Amino acid sequence: MVSKRDRELLRDNIRSRGPKLSATDRENIVKPYLPDPSELPRWPPQRRKKLPRKTPIRTFIKSQIHLITYTFLHIFFGIAVRLVQTYHAVVDRILAIIYYHHRTPELIQKDVKDLDRLPEHLSVILSIRKEDDALPLLMDEVAELVSWTASAGIPVLSVYEKSGTLKSCIPVLHEVITNKLSSYFGSSQQPTLQLFAPHHPIYETRPHGDAPNNCLIVLLLSATDGQETFVDLTKTLAEMSQNGKLSPEDITMELVDAEISEITTQPFQEDSLAAERGKAGSIQIPPQVKPEPDLLLIFGPSLKLNGYPPWHIRLTEMYCTGVNGDGTTGCSDNVEYQGFLRGLWHYAGAQMRFGR
Amino acid sequence: MHLSKLRNWFLASPPIEYAISKLRDLLVGAIKQGPVPQHIAFIMDGNRRFARTHGIETVEGHNLGFEALARILEVCYRSGVQVVTIYAFSIENFKRSKFEVDALMEMARVKLSQMAQHGEILDRYGAKVRVLGRLDLLRPDVLAAVDRAVDMTKNNGDRVLNICFPYTSRDEITSAIRDTVSEYSKPLRSTHSSSSLPRTPFSEDHITQNIRSRTTNGKLEDSSNESDSVSESSTLGEDDGQKPPDRNHVYKSESALSSAATLHLPDQPTKGQTRESTGSEPPVFKSPETITRQTLADHLLTRDNPPLDLLIRTSGVERLSDFMLWQCHENTEIAFLDILWPEFDLWQFLPVLLRWQRRVSKARQNPDAEGNFDGEFQDPSDDSREELVVSSAAKPKSL
Fold first, then answer.
1. Which chain B positions have a beta carbon within 8 Å of A42's beta carbon?
2. A140 partner at 20 to 30 Å CA-CA among A246, B159, B164, B377?
3. Interchain pair A234, B331: CB under 8 A
């Protein structure tokens, strides 16, 4: 740490913008703060002989002191972390009691009504657990999330799960979500659901009554939609370039952006499905998804992206629901309504409120 | 007001200052005892807001931010971090007021040229400065200072400071793709394909003959499949284990068709001409199928650096703002701190480091606990590839 007097000297020098201190002056100021060259792991060999050998006992004691400090630091930090975790867990429970959706969209709407802004595109990162019934649990979580999102009036939800197992069972998932939605909304005013994944056909409900009240788009993502997409794009571009159809200079950010966005926003149109939908005469094809999520909710203990597609998150707000999921607490619910709500509050810049 | 003055005076008094610096040394030494992140990135946000709230000029705020950077760099390098990447200036920042942009440029120029004056100290402590980003957008005098500083320190040791100067991550990814494409569209020499390989376990001629004899027998489908897997295994090397299995299949069937076509009509130029297995055509390219994530990563600006372990953004804004999107998307711990950058110091940095150490040592104790999915994810494609190689290796022996 540079002492105050020296700091002022250096600052004065910057302020005056003149060559008040020469290079050697500055060096002289800084020199006492530089670590001893002998402490460095690699010093030039010619210096080695000149340096007096340090007493081994002193270095030993020093390293022992550091080790002890390290241990104590981590013990205390661990205690602090536990305390904070407990505090958060208590707050979570209280919030979970105060705010519960009771499977009523009106309640959810009331919870989000006062928020200044809502994300237009919400994205969540889920992780699959290791148990046997992990997949049904995961699908149930997705269904709950879809219902909350629909109730809150957010038009687009993308669900990221690293391994991509969700993609392999889209029809089943669709059924699960539809059931869940009907338990929330009742069968009459269920929102239209469009479920799709990149390179998969779009899966859609037929609205029961007329006047589809609101439409919800759910996008499933996995690790292959991340960096692998760029690899595929590069392969295609390289092939085109090798065949002389494109020169490398043509590759601009706009081109890449358009291509990458297309993969995640334009669902793969299967002819039969498209024709069928044409007969039905619905208007919302192709669904226009805003490719950049506004809010990324991470249901997990730490803020890690775990292979989430990199291109679109540059301006995404991230929020980690944190705390639980340590594996030790045995708490099976990672995805909870209050976590979802906290994320939305956070996005709107609101504070946690205990009372209604 | 008086209290804070008193506090400042107290903190600036020599014994306290000495004690604090000793305490810092102790803490840094203690951190060194555990696992230390190898690569940390900082988004230095909040200089302007700090200046606004403290009633000083914006430029002054940036100067204080520079001091904070120096403090943090000291902590990082002394505790054993290899690479520190800082987000100094975004391409988008050119849209700010001209006055501020000019001031920032001036500051960068002055700092870099001052640094160049201390070449000897830099040499002794072995820090290497690199500037990442679109250097072509810089003013010529700034560019000269950048070049000088980078040039002077390029031979230094293992500690690296990456300054992302006019940088956005999207731009970086795009240029990585562009560079990869232009590398792959350079024709290779015709002999290159065989001589550059470390070993070619199978002779291509033999296999071609082999297939031709088999295709005349009518077993077109599986024999050409094998030829393809042989050519793949002999040309690709070991590095494509990350391909998902479905891609593998698509590619296989497609090129099986093309190679079968070339085998049947050897005189005609077909669409398989770019493949190395039919290397008789004049322009021979590296096969685009050999592009992997690693290839792209090797063309990024951070190619020589260890993977990003920790990304810290100050000022409470919780976005990446187009910084290190590619690098931080896998296993990086992202920390958003609700503090302005000029106030950032060891005391705020320490909890982040400790949390990281805690998590890493926990993950080392039981690797199954969380987030260790990579192995499982890569396995299927590896296995299928191995199977293919084994089956194709078994074929020639049986003949």
1. 126, 157-158
2. B377
3. no
ipTM score for this prediction = 0.79
| Residue showing tokens 């991509």 | A164
Percent of chain B with pLDDT over 90: 11
Per CB-CB distance under 8 Å, the chain B contacts of A242 are: 184-185, 274, 283, 285, 288
**Residues B224/B260, Cβ–Cβ less than 8 Å:** yes
Residue B121: CATH number of its domain: 3.40.1180.10
Instruction: Decide if A200 touches B, using CB distance below 8 A.
Output: no
Same domain, B152 and B250: no
Place of tokens 């269904």: A143
CA distance B168 to B87: 9
Q: What is the mean pLDDT of chain B?
A: 73
Give the CA distances from residue B359 to residues A132, B333, B364, in Å, rounded to whole numbers and listed in that order: 26, 10, 9
Looking at residue A109, which CATH number applies to its domain? 3.40.1180
Distance between CA atoms of residues B333 and B307, nearest Å: 11
Q: Which sequence positions of B are flagged as catalytic?
A: 45, 93
Report yes or no: A345 at the B interface, CB cutoff 8 Å: no
Write out pLDDT tens, residues B247-282. Answer: 444 444 444 444 443 444 344 444 443 344 444 455
Query: Could A303 and B333 be called an inter-chain contact, meaning their C-beta atoms sit closer than 8 Å?
Result: yes
Average pLDDT for A71-75: 92
Whole-number pLDDT of residue A123: 92
Task: For residues A202 and A267, state if they share a domain.
Answer: yes
**Nearest residue to A299 (alpha-carbon basis) of B362, B370, B375:** B370
Q: Do B181 and A252 touch (CB under 8 A)?
A: no
Tell me the per-residue pLDDT of B306-322, one tens digit each, with 9 for 90 and over. Answer: 889 999 998 888 888 88
Is residue B225 within 8 Å of residue B193, measured between CB atoms? no
d(CA B399, CA B394): 9
Q: What DSSP character marks residue B271? A: G
Is B39:B331 a contact under the CB 8 Å cutoff? no
Per CB-CB distance under 8 Å, the chain B contacts of A65 are 26, 29
Dist. CA B338–CA B379, nearest whole Å: 41
Instruction: Select the residue of A237, A306, A311 nearest B325 (Cβ to Cβ).
Output: A311
Of B168, B178, B369, the CB nearest to A251: B178
Whether the CB of A25 is below 8 Å from some CB of chain B: the reply is: no
Q: Which residues contact A28 (CB under 8 A, 6 or more apart)?
A: none
Interior CA angle at A106 toward A101 and A108, to 5°?
Answer: 40
Give the pLDDT score at A342: 87
Indicate the pTM of the whole model: 0.74
The tens digit of pLDDT for each residue in A277-336 reads 444 444 344 556 678 888 999 887 778 888 888 888 888 888 888 755 444 444 445 788
Query: Do both B61 and B167 map to the same domain?
Result: yes
Domain residues for B264?
187-284+379-398
Summarize pLDDT for B219-246 with one digit per residue, the tens.
444 444 444 444 444 443 444 434 344 4
Given phi > 0 = left and psi -120 to 50 = alpha, else beta, which region is B80?
Answer: left
The number of residues making up chain A comes to 356
Q: Write out chain B residues lying below 8 Å of A305, CB-based.
A: 328-330, 332, 334
- Tokens for B172, please give them: 């970086």
* Residues 163-192, chain A, touching B (beta carbon < 8 A): 163
Q: Which residue range is the domain that position A17 belongs to?
A: 4-50
Report d(CA A236, CA A242) in Å as an integer.
10
Report the residue from B14, B325, B334 with minimal CB separation from A318: B334
pLDDT digits (tens, 9 = 90+) for A219-232: 888 888 888 888 88
Which residues in chain A are closer than 8 Å to B185, comparing Cβ atoms?
238, 241-242, 248
